[in-house]
Write a structure and sequence with these properties.
Blueprint lengths: L3 H12 L1 E8 L5 H11 L8 H6 L10 H6 L7 E6 L2 E7 L7 H10 L2 E7 L6 H12 L4 E6 L8 H12 L2 E4 L1 E4 L7 E4 L4 E4 L15 E3 L5 H6 L1 H17 L5 H5 L3 E6 L8 H11 L6 E2 L4 E2 L7 E9 L8 E9 L2 E2 L4 E3 L4 E3 L5 E3 L4 E3 L2 E2 L4 E5 L9 E3 L10 E3 L3 E7 L5 H13 L4 E5 L6 E4 L3 H14 L3 E5 L4 E7 L2 H11 L3 E3 L5 E5 L2 H10 L3 E4 L1 E3 L2
Parallel strand pairs: 1-3, 1-4, 4-5, 5-11, 6-11
Antiparallel strand pairs: 2-3, 7-8, 8-9, 9-10, 12-13, 14-15, 14-23, 15-22, 16-21, 17-18, 17-23, 19-20, 24-33, 25-27, 25-28, 26-27, 26-30, 29-31, 29-32, 30-31
Bound molecules: guanosine-5',3'-tetraphosphate.
Length: about 525
């Protein structure tokens, strides 16, 4: 029997958690939108802080030089803030397709996603890839169509694009009036309000309240918009009533439909409504599947899942932080947690919470929250922590790499450092490495080729190891599992050139073409060739 006051408290705390990831194709406005969301949460009090960070003066999300050089966000970060009585955990994701594995892991820690689309560009390549990742978990997605202050595609065209290119129903919950120089505001289809756009209001600091009118029949509509725009809006809304998808909560929650909002992040227009929609519509923490059973967030027992490791965030301190998503129970600073993979208890007195511009010690936290646990290599991606029961949460896999390089040391005396660096970077999930069963140079495997560049740079800057990376003819990999060891031994004898072991010692086969892979799978029926392997 759960104790009643605790149950009431955990229900209350869990119900006010919103943990969501923000995803977009680079340049759609993710950073700008994040900044405005943080402004509303009071997490930052000055616009421009995130931008300054992009230029390298702050270190919140873009930790690495390579990110600044390329203007992309490689690593993910977490920000916690309050809004309207809700505790929001906002998870940033890498914008670049080569880091989709990292994005997938972040999505395992989020209960929903917010997708940003540029109104002039519509759905872009990376939007599609991110959508594929979301689909793997049926993540509920809210869409924000950004940059309405610029000329872009028509709203109907954009909705059609989302439906055709992403294969998801698009249900507009707001509707723009004009765009570019003619952008006049947004009509809130849920509340029948018009928010009038004032380009001067949202620049810089917190926005002024915008003008709100009641319903399409409000006589001030024509005064504010002019007769033509008012008539256009009435016609559009009528059209939508007949042709558009009506918003259906269940379709959104199961990832079949995305509610769509329009606005302009840089002008801070439509952002507050978006945040209100997130707290209103987006799901809070839900039960999660573990090896033994499903775990409800409302259980008294604490459980948490390590979904990301970030090492050396602060070069001066050489730290290594495990990001833990709390799945059930209450976290209290200092509580002892069981680390089941290692079969030992770990202390949590130095647990931290991530605010926009700082980290601070965390006294208590609840399901949905993300806490950081500094550690020296004991925690890996996929690890589960509980107050006792030997649970293991599922759903954080390694993905089979599609790009491979052989690693050569420039200075052969650095072999130990290389081993250490690659081990740590692979535990972080930044790269996978493989040892050929026949010996010889190690191989690095990545889902996206840009990962190699990041690894070479990080090995040099964090471990003082310089490497050369040489191409190989391999372009696919599968983990091998079999009931009988004999079969694996036979395959090893016949194909030793293509066999490697991963960091955990699992046997992996590499292929030079999809055709080769299919043929091998066909021939070796007693062996399972898997494209993913659970991390822990
Ligand atoms: P990202 O994180 O998704 O890569 O996008 P980011 O926010 O960095 O925005 C990309 C560019 O789009 C930036 O311009 C940003 O100012 C601009 N932008 C974002 N939201 C809006 C909007 O609502 N309207 C308009 N017109 N532009 C917007 P930049 O020129 O690359 O950078 P900057 O020189 O403005 O800082």
């Amino acid at each position: 029997m759960q104790n009643a006051p605790f149950l009431a408290e955990i229900k209350r705390e869990t119900a006010r958690r919103r943990t969501f990831a923000i995803i977009s194709h680079p340049d759609a406005g993710k950073t700008t939108l994040t900044e405005k969301l943080l402004l509303f949460g009071g997490a930052i009090d000055m616009a421009g802080a995130i931008k300054a960070k992009k230029d390298g003066r702050h270190a919140t999300s873009d930790w690495m030089a390579i990110e600044r050089e390329r203007g992309i966000s490689v690593t993910s970060s977490v920000m916690n803030f309050d809004f309207n009585g809700y505790a929001i955990n906002l998870l940033d994701t890498p914008g670049h397709q080569d880091f989709s594995e990292d994005t997938y892991r972040v999505l395992t820690a989020a209960d929903s996603a917010l997708m940003v689309i540029d109104s002039a560009k519509g759905v872009e390549v990376q939007t599609k890839k991110l959508m594929d990742v979301c689909r793997l978990r049926d993540t509920p997605i809210i869409t924000f169509i950004n940059k309405l202050d610029r000329d872009g595609r028509s709203p109907l065209e954009l909705l059609d694009d989302i439906e055709q290119s992403l294969g998801i129903e698009a249900a507009p919950l707001s509707w723009p009036i004009g765009m570019g120089k003619e952008f006049k505001g947004v009509y809130d289809l849920r509340q029948a309000h018009l928010r009038f756009f004032d380009p001067q209001a949202g620049k810089g600091t917190r926005p002024r309240e915008t003008v709100v009118i009641q319903g399409l029949e409000d006589p001030s509509l024509a005064e504010l918009l002019g007769n033509d725009s008012a008539a256009d809006l009435r016609r559009d809304v009528e059209l939508l009533d007949g042709a558009g998808y009506p918003f259906v909560m269940e379709h959104y929650l199961t990832g079949k439909q995305t509610p769509v909002f329009f606005g302009s992040a840089i002008n801070n227009f439509g952002v507050k409504e978006l945040l209100e929609a997130v707290v209103d519509l987006a799901p809070g923490p839900r039960p999660r599947t573990a090896n033994l059973r499903e775990v409800s967030p409302l259980e008294e027992q604490f459980s948490g899942l390590v979904f990301k490791i970030q090492a050396n965030m602060d070069a001066a301190h050489r730290d290594r932080i495990a990001f833990v998503r709390i799945c059930s129970g209450q976290f209290n600073r200092g509580m002892k947690l069981r680390h089941h993979r290692l079969g030992k208890d770990i202390k949590t007195s130095s647990a931290i919470l991530f605010m926009a511009q700082e980290r601070c010690g965390v006294e208590e936290a609840w399901p949905g929250d993300i806490i950081g646990l500094p550690n020296h290599g004991t925690l890996n991606v996929g690890d589960t922590l509980t107050t006792g029961e030997p649970l293991r949460f599922l759903g954080i896999p390694h993905f089979a790499p599609e790009h491979f390089r052989r690693v050569y040391l420039k200075n052969p005396f650095k072999a130990k450092q290389l081993e250490k660096g690659l081990t740590q970077l692979s535990e972080e999930g930044a790269i996978q490495f493989f040892r050929p069963v026949n010996g010889g140079a190690m191989l690095l495997g990545a889902v996206g080729a840009l990962q190699f560049e990041v690894i070479a740079q990080r090995l040099a800057s964090e471990y003082a190891v310089d490497i050369d990376l040489l191409g190989t003819t391999f372009n696919a990999a599968r983990w091998l599992f079999a009931e009988s060891k004999e079969q694996l031994d036979k395959l090893t004898r016949e194909h030793s050139d293509a066999l490697v072991t991963d960091a955990a010692g699992h046997l992996v086969m590499l292929f030079t073409s999809a055709w080769m892979m299919e043929r091998t799978i066909e021939l070796w029926k007693a062996i399972r060739f898997e494209a993913t392997r659970e991390c822990a």
